[in-house]
Design brief:
By secondary structure, this protein is mainly beta. It has four domains: 88 residues, no CATH class; 82 residues, Immunoglobulin-like (Sandwich), CATH 2.60.40; 76 residues, Sandwich (Immunoglobulin-like), CATH 2.60.40; 80 residues. The protein has two helices and 25 strands. It has a five-stranded mixed β-sheet with strand order 7-14-13-10-11, with no helix packed on it. Strands 15-20-19-17 form a four-stranded mixed β-sheet, with no helix packed on it.
Length: 352
C-alpha cells in the first residue's frame, strides 16, 4: 500500500509478508499466535550477532511457544510481517525557467488575455506542484484585460518531499495590431505662379484609428520622416498617393488615394516640341549603334538602339535644327550586294 502524505518522508510503502509452513499449519490456515521479533524477545534467534525486528520464530512470544492448533506440534505454521519502506528526497526540483517572453496584444481596446506558461522541471517525485505569482494574481490565468507593459513572474516549484525551487522571468506585452488607415479621395492642390504645389501626408487622413495610440504619424511611405511632398508642372493631372499610418509601437498600414494637381491659371508652359525618328537601311532593316547629333539652337546626341529609334525632347519652338547620323564599324550593315558591285567596278576603274 502506497501513502503519499507522510510527515517524515516523501512517501511510504507498506508490504505485508506471509510465511506458511504447510506441514504444521493444520486444516485451518490462519495465524493463531502473533509472533514477536528477536528484538522484543531478547534472543538472537538466527545467531547473526544482532537483535533485529525482522527475525521471528514460529509461534514464539515472550510467554513462550503458544500454539492452539489441535495437533501435537507446538507451532501454528503461520507468520506475518509488515514491512515499512519510507522514501526520502533532499534534492530540490531542477527548474528551467522560461526565457523572457514577448507577447503581442491584438485587442481592439489595447488589451488582451494572457496565459502564463509553466517552466520545465526535472524531478524524481511523482508529485510536483507549481505556485505562479504575477502582478495579475496567483496562478497561470488566463488573465484578461492585460495592457502593454513589463510584468515579472515568479515560479515556486515544490515536490512531495518538502523541497522547492524558485525562478523568475519577465513577460513583455506590446501592441502588435496595425492602425486602420482611412484616406480622403480626390484631394485637389493647385500650382502657384512659381509652378509649385505642396502637400502633407496628414492632408489625406479621413479618420484613421488605432487600438492603442492616440498619436499617429502620417507619411507618404514606410519612412515616417517622409511626410511632405512637392509637385510641379510635370505632375499635373492625377497622382496615386500612398498614405502610411504609424502608431506609437511602430505598427504600420497604408491606403491609396488620388491627388489631383491642377493648373487653373495656366502657369505651366505648353508642352515643348520633340524630334524623333529611326535609322533604317533601304530594305527597311533597323540600324543600331548610330550616333545621331542634333545641332542648331542646341547641341544634343542620341544613340539608336537595336530598333534604330532616336528622340530629342524639350526643343525650343521655331528653331532650325540639323540631324547628322554617324556610325563606324560593321561597315557591311546596310550595304547591299549591288552596292558592293558598284564599289568594285569603281576601284577597278571600270566605272568612273
Amino acid at each position: 500500500q502506497l501513502f503519499t502524505v507522510v510527515p517524515d518522508a516523501c512517501f511510504k510503502l507498506e508490504r505485508t509478508w506471509t510465511v506458511i509452513n504447510w506441514c504444521v499449519v493444520g486444516d485451518v490456515v490462519d495465524e493463531e499466535t502473533l509472533e514477536q521479533p528477536e528484538s522484543v524477545l531478547g534472543i538472537d534467534l538466527d545467531g547473526d550477532g544482532d537483535l533485529d525486528e525482522r527475525t521471528f520464530q514460529d509461534s514464539r512470544t515472550l510467554s513462550g511457544v503458544l500454539d492452539q492448533d489441535p495437533d501435537p506440534d507446538p507451532w501454528d505454521g503461520f507468520i506475518t510481517y509488515r514491512q515499512i519502506i519510507k522514501l526520502t528526497d533532499t534534492v530540490a526540483p531542477l527548474v528551467v525557467c522560461p526565457p523572457e517572453m514577448n507577447v503581442c496584444l491584438y485587442g481592439n481596446d489595447c488589451v488582451d488575455s494572457i496565459m502564463i506558461p509553466l517552466p520545465d522541471v526535472v524531478e524524481c517525485s511523482p508529485t510536483v506542484s507549481f505556485a505562479v505569482t504575477s502582478e495579475w494574481g496567483d496562478g497561470q490565468g488566463p488573465w484578461y484585460d492585460v495592457g502593454p507593459g513589463v510584468y515579472p513572474v515568479v515560479y515556486v516549484v515544490s515536490d512531495g518531499c518538502g523541497n522547492s525551487s524558485v525562478c523568475e522571468t519577465v513577460i513583455r506585452t506590446a501592441d502588435c495590431k496595425p492602425p486602420t488607415p482611412y484616406c480622403l479621395n480626390g484631394l485637389v492642390v493647385t500650382l502657384d505662379n512659381n509652378q509649385h504645389a505642396e502637400a502633407w501626408a496628414w492632408f489625406f487622413n479621413a479618420g484613421s484609428v488605432d487600438n492603442c495610440s492616440d498619436h499617429l504619424v502620417f507619411s507618404f511611405s514606410a519612412d515616417t520622416t517622409d511626410q511632405y511632398a512637392e509637385f510641379g508642372c510635370v505632375h499635373e493631372g492625377a497622382e496615386i498617393i500612398e498614405m502610411w499610418v504609424t502608431d506609437e509601437a511602430g505598427n504600420q498600414d497604408y491606403c491609396e488615394t488620388i491627388l489631383l494637381i491642377q493648373d487653373p491659371n495656366d502657369y505651366c508652359p505648353d508642352a515643348l516640341p520633340s524630334l524623333a525618328g529611326a535609322i533604317r537601311t533601304e530594305q527597311g532593316a533597323s540600324v543600331g549603334q548610330v550616333v545621331v547629333t542634333l545641332s542648331g539652337d542646341t547641341l544634343l546626341h542620341d544613340t539608336t538602339a537595336v530598333d534604330g529609334q532616336f528622340a530629342f525632347d524639350g526643343l525650343s519652338p521655331g528653331g532650325d535644327y540639323v540631324l547628322t547620323p554617324y556610325r563606324s564599324g560593321d561597315w557591311t550593315n546596310g550595304v547591299t550586294t549591288l552596292d558592293l558591285v558598284f564599289i568594285t567596278r569603281h576601284i577597278l576603274g571600270d566605272d568612273t
